[in-house]
Specification:
heterodimer, A: alpha/beta, about 35% helix, B: alpha/beta, 6-stranded mixed sheet, 12 helices, 10 strands, about 40% helix
Chain lengths: ~300, ~290
């Protein structure tokens, strides 16, 4: 992605409202969001807060009842498949709704082949994605004969294989163990470095703190707050209002009145903070350093951090 | 308390199929779970937890073919050979693919399905459906088609179906994978209540959500590549796990998920054999260290 011509908002939602047919209340009401190229934005909120609806609007599966969605300046719901312009991909929450090929290899190759890439390029990309998502050993298996968490990684790989400009991932870490969740985080960071605008819909706040620069908190279809992920997810009042719970490490930091750590090295970061605390015998909840948010500069989870 | 679940030298071997080699998912695992106990089964992906849970009501090997050796007794029944329909009267299973479990057109009919199979009187069935839907917070969605629910709502629905029949054993595979923090906590609180309540349900939960298990489980069973590494109280097992991670001791197989607070404490005190596993426990532990 050229730095000479930075695209401040590859994804932009302006005052978007969406109501499902036959539903009395709007699933989303007046939500605005900017998802810049090269950045990861986390959409968090309780079950039923409108996260998945937002994802479907960004990729054009749904068209807003009111307001505007633009991807690279274009209404994604009016884009014809195969037309020029930004490529947009959605990883479904339930992989059963996405996968259709008879082998995992064919599933991963489907998108790149449809884009007209040569056989060598397709093969190369399939192998690269399979390696990063721990799928190399199951490439010839049927996608529905592997465990659900593996199937989920197939769904992620099938989208990432196309190198989309805009990537929406709905609950990418559901059912994943820690090691696989970490690999998925690293892969998402790589996609952002390549210049993709990445939107991660997740209930996993630990993961959001690890992978994202900015966060949007939804509550009953409305945006509560949108800002740097550490500031947003380290604010107890916001979490309470959204019906969310701080992940354990963040909850511990909040209880101790310390800065909430984030990124791949969050444990080490909190360890250093605790070791360096001037008054370790102080009562829990000491307010001395509350509110100080180091690294509030959009570099959380850059992957290269120790 | 008598054991409701007894595994003695249980080995489960998956046959080869196209693209997948044969694999031994459980290797000579022995385990007892008493009435009233909540046991968490943890380990890296592929370590055998999902297989163990599915074997408890006979789905493995009766509906999902596998080779099982050893003894697997649940509520006095041989789970390998007793027909699943009979096992299902005492053991409820929730898998990590909720949608695949759903067969009915409305949420309340979905919950009633298992009760109808048990021949429950209509009045009691209605009351039971309303009761469990309220317990999981889905009472307002009783008339919805299950397939139109969100991922999190579907997950709560299958939990409601599982507890509606008042099982003596509850077997759950990743019951919180699609749930936000408070919703996941409510599922664990529900399971804890069933275990600690008058019915003394034996609950076995396979999950990567170790932070919740650390708070609610009586015991943690740690599996690695199908073998049992440790079976003990959460502090003992997660302390061992955290030290292993901290020291990057190389063991075969990938590392298991460890509560983040335990990992943190293991870095602060590499010698301790009893580290805290919860946020509240860690606050106390840090205060005690001065």
């Amino acid at each position: 992605m050229s730095t000479a011509n930075p695209d401040p908002a590859l994804v932009s939602l302006d005052d978007v409202t969406y109501a499902y047919a036959g539903s009395a209340s709007a699933a989303l009401a007046g939500v605005s969001l900017e998802g810049p190229a090269g950045q990861v934005t986390a959409i968090v909120g309780a079950t039923g807060s409108g996260k998945s609806t937002l994802g479907r609007l960004i990729v054009g599966l749904l068209r807003p009842t009111a307001g505007h969605v633009r991807v690279a300046g274009v209404d994604p719901a009016r884009r014809r498949p195969g037309s020029d312009g930004a490529r947009v991909g959605l990883v479904f929450q339930n992989p059963n709704h996405q996968l259709l090929a008879r082998s995992i290899r064919a599933e991963l190759a489907l998108g790149p082949a449809a884009l007209g890439w040569g056989a060598d390029a397709v093969r190369g990309r399939v192998d690269a994605v399979a390696t990063r998502l721990a799928l190399a050993g199951v490439l010839d298996a049927h996608p529905y004969r592997v465990p659900v968490p593996v199937r989920k990684r197939v769904a992620i790989g099938a989208i990432l294989a196309m190198c989309p400009d805009v990537i929406v991932l709905d609950e990418p870490t559901a059912g994943q163990d820690r090691a696989d969740a970490d690999s998925i985080a690293a892969l998402i960071r790589e996609e952002a470095r390549r210049g993709a605008a990445v939107i991660v819909i997740t209930h996993d706040l630990r993961f959001a703190l690890e992978v994202a620069e900015s966060g949007l908190v939804l509550h009953e279809g409305r945006a509560l707050v949108h800002g740097p992920v550490r500031r947003v997810l380290a604010d107890q009042a916001t979490l309470d209002a959204a019906g969310l719970e701080a992940p354990p490490l963040a909850a511990l930091a909040l209880r101790l009145g310390l800065a909430v750590p984030a990124g791949a090295g969050a444990i080490e970061e909190l360890e250093q903070t605790i070791r360096g605390r001037p008054d370790r015998s102080g009562p829990p909840g000491t307010r001395g350093r509350a509110g100080r948010v180091p690294g509030d500069h959009g570099m959380a989870g850059s992957g290269g951090a120790p | 308390m008598p054991a409701l679940i007894t595994l003695l030298d249980v080995t489960v071997r998956w046959p080869a199929e196209p693209g997948l080699p044969a694999r031994t998912a459980l290797k000579r695992v022995s385990l007892e779970v008493a009435a009233g106990e909540l046991v968490g089964v943890v380990g890296a992906a592929g370590s055998g937890g999902a297989t163990l849970v599915r074997a408890l009501n006979g789905v493995v090997p009766q509906l999902i073919p596998a080779e099982v050796t050893g003894r697997l007794e649940v509520c006095g029944l041989d789970a390998v050979r007793t027909p699943v329909a009979e096992m299902a009267r005492v053991v409820s299973l929730v898998t990590d693919d909720p949608e695949a479990q759903m067969t009915q057109l409305t949420v309340d009919a979905e919950v009633a399905f298992g009760l109808e199979n048990q021949g429950l009187p209509l009045d009691e069935m209605r009351a039971r459906v309303a009761e469990v839907l309220a317990l999981v917070g889905l009472d307002a969605l009783a008339a919805r088609n299950p397939l139109t629910l969100s991922g999190g709502e579907q997950q709560r629905l299958v939990v409601a179906c599982a507890i509606a029949s008042r099982p003596r054993v509850l077997a759950l595979d990743e019951p919180t994978a699609n749930l936000d923090g408070p919703a996941g906590r409510r599922v664990l609180e529900l399971a804890r209540g069933l275990a600690s309540g008058p019915d003394g349900v034996a609950v076995v939960i396979a999950s990567h959500n170790v932070d919740l298990l650390a708070e609610y489980a009586d015991r943690i069973v740690w599996l690695r590549d199908g073998r049992m590494v440790l079976d003990g109280d959460p502090s003992a097992v997660f302390t061992a796990m955290a030290h292993e991670r901290a020291q990057e001791r190389v063991n075969p197989g990938p590392p298991a998920a460890t509560p983040a607070v335990t990992e943190l404490c293991a870095r602060l005190d590499p010698g301790s054999q009893a580290l805290p596993v919860t946020v509240a426990g860690t606050v106390e532990w840090l205060a005690g260290r001065g």
